[in-house]
Specification:
This protein is mostly beta strands. The chain has strands at 2-7, 10-13, 18-26, 33-39, 46-51, 59-60, 68-73, 78-83, 92-99, 111-112, 116-121. It is 0% helix and 51% strand. Strand 5 and strand 6 form a beta hairpin.
């Protein structure tokens, strides 16, 4: 079992930055791949970034490539999503998820945080 808690969301103007954090507890964090997902009102949950257990070669959705950076610190049981050059279309609830498979499919993750709201104003 892994418990995940996101933090760092908020309201920011377009062009601004936010850094989301995901704190894990419970089972060994380094055993899991981690994904950041987001869900906007009326839309399906989509993968934003995925990182394997060892932090090598993160995946990024085309919509965030070059603007978002995902990282993890296994020693601190944490994952991070640095979001720069934010756009209004980035507005969504952002979720951290952990699973045994590194996938962009939400169904592949067994553990989820409660989410943190990110709102980007124009």
């Amino acid at each position: 079992q892994v418990q995940l808690v996101e933090s760092g969301g908020g309201l920011v103007q377009a062009g601004g930055s936010l850094r989301l954090s995901c704190a894990a507890s419970g089972s060994t964090f380094s055993d899991y791949n981690v994904g950041w997902f987001r869900q906007a009102p009326g839309k399906e949950r989509e993968a934003v970034a995925v990182i394997s257990w060892n932090g090598v070669s993160p995946y990024y959705a085309d919509s965030v490539k070059g603007r978002f950076t995902m990282s993890r610190d296994n020693a601190k049981n944490s994952s991070f999503l640095q979001m720069n050059s934010l756009k209004p279309e980035d507005t969504a609830v952002y979720y951290c998820a952990a699973g045994r498979v590194a996938t962009i499919q939400a169904a592949g993750y067994s553990y989820w945080g409660q989410g943190t709201q990110v709102t980007v104003s124009s």
